Amino acid sequence: MASIFTKIVNGEIPSAKVYEDDLTLAFLDINPASRGHTLVICKPELPSLLDLPPDLLAATTRTTQLVARALMAALEPDGFNILQNNGSAAGQVVFHYHVHIIPRWHSDRVLTPWRPGSASPSDLRDTAALIAAQVSKE
Asked: Which of the residues 37, 96, 98, 100 is marked catalytic?
């Protein structure tokens, strides 16, 4: 079954479009965290960052930057968050790759997707070594 985003791409569900090209689409989130909260999606229905080929990831990133610049000029927020979730444990609800651009103003309530913790230098070194070993296999 097609995701809600694929239905938007196909014109089956309306959206407040901000930008569209051959590979990407940007539209306002219907449940915004703030005024102007925009979603940037790749048009092919791929579930996560790990599923995108490099050219499609680059196209989605270019659109994210383009729309973020336009959003900053149009709404003049004090900043913005870029949020991208992969997997249900990370908060992903629609399994179609997308990036959130969330305008922020100094008067906003704090939006934090995690609580900062702490780690010892040895834990950091050990974890970095595990990840680096896998990076070298890619």
From this structure: 98
